[in-house]
User: Which sequence fits this backbone?
């Protein structure tokens, strides 16, 4: 990795995501830690200026997501799509509360908002 490239954790901020065992497991998924250009990552018009953080989900949602989620080796955007699909499936669970559903929507939106920056920053 050259000096222009930076590792980006799709599930950020770290302090929020490592508070949960499943959150930590998801955050450490290699396909969700792409190397992207510094410009796409942190410049004034970069990803972290546009997406402040990815909202943490409750333990029940995370457990349901864990059951459905699978990474696609070497494919960050595909893996993000699978994470979004697993979240949608978890939101449809009969025990998902209205708040969990709304947080799931925000979670999915925050992943979607990162995709153009990641696509731009991949080399």
Assistant:
């Amino acid at each position: 990795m050259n000096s222009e490239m930076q590792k980006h954790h799709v599930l950020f901020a770290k302090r929020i995501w490592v508070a949960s065992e499943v959150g930590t497991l998801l955050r450490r998924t290699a396909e969700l830690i792409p190397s992207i250009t510094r410009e796409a990552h942190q410049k004034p018009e970069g990803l972290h200026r546009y997406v402040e953080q990815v909202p943490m989900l409750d333990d029940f949602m995370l457990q349901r997501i864990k059951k459905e989620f699978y990474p696609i080796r070497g494919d960050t955007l595909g893996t993000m799509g699978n994470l979004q699909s697993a979240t949608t499936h978890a939101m449809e669970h009969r025990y998902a509360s209205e708040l969990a559903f709304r947080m799931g929507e925000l979670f999915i939106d925050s992943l979607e908002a990162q995709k153009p920056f990641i696509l731009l920053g991949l080399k």
